[in-house]
Each structure stands twice: as C-alpha cells, then as structure tokens.
Amino acid sequence: MIEGPEALCRSYDRAMLDKDGRAIAGHYLFPYTSFTLGQVHTFADRATADAACTDQIACFERTGVGSDIRMTGCEVVPVSPDSALCHVTWAVFPANGAPGWEWTNIYGYRRRGDEEGFEFNISDNEIAELLRRFPDFYSL
User: Fold this and answer.
1) d(CA 139, CA 26)
2) pTM (2 decimals)?
3) Which of 56, 67, 93, 96 could share a disulfide with 100, CB 3.0–4.6 Å?
C-alpha cells in the first residue's frame, strides 16, 4: 500500500530507476490520460499501459537517451482530501554521453476508495526537451 501522493512519487521513482515498464504502469489509475504538447493519449486499462511503458523504455534505450532517469524533486499541491497535483522534477543522464537535463511534469494524484494512483500527467516539458535534443526519437 502506497499511502499518499508523496509516497506514490517515491515509488514511481523506484520503478523508473528499475527500468520496469509494468511497475511504472502500476502507478496509474484507469483510464489514464497523458497531455503532451497539445496531444492527448489515454491508457484505457493496465495491459495497454504496461505495453506502452515497456515500449517507451525500449525507445529510450534504442535512441541513445538511455533510461537513467531519476526524480530530483517532488512538490505536492493538495486539491481535495483525495486528490493532489504532484510537480515531479526528473533528471536524465543519457547513455550516449550527451549532456543530461532536467524537466518537471505534473501528475494528477487520486485516491479512490482503497486504490490510489496517478490518473493523468502533463508532460510538455519532458517531450519538448527530449525532441529538441533527439528530434528523431519517435521515428527510430
């Protein structure tokens, strides 16, 4: 049991450090929605999220970005007793020797009865910076 947005963020960081797509997806509530640079993507269920997160890690490895991604900060802004906005700052250390960088994503935390997780994210900063440095990221 995670027990709160701060603990969920720490657990999410561990899953990222473990490079485990299924564990990453295990932090989401469904349907999960990602807002990125004006695009909207959803994971209707756990199986879809597992596959997408596993594929994303493989893409990071394949393109030379690597998957050494670490949480460097987390600010939780309560919205209601059962929800919060989590401003999570990440740092990446590319495997190909390129300089690393940081970005902040926002994750929407929700507690629903006995379950809790992220129900959405806004990742403009992450993807804009990734594409600036690796413009062919999604075509490789």
Assistant:
1) 27
2) 0.93
3) 93
Compute the distance between CA of residue 18 and CA of residue 37 in angstroms, rounded to an integer: 27
Which CATH architecture does the domain made up of 5-139 adopt? Roll (3.10)
Long-range contacts of 39-43, Cβ-Cβ distance < 8 Å, separation of 24 or more? none
Span 132-137, average pLDDT: 89
Closest CA to 103 of 87, 83, 80, 86: 87
Exposure of 125 in the CB half-sphere (CA atoms within 13 A):
15
Rounded distance between C-alpha atoms, residue 54 and residue 51, angstroms: 5
Average pLDDT over residues 27-40: 97
Question: How many whole angstroms separate alpha carbon 82 and alpha carbon 12?
Answer: 18
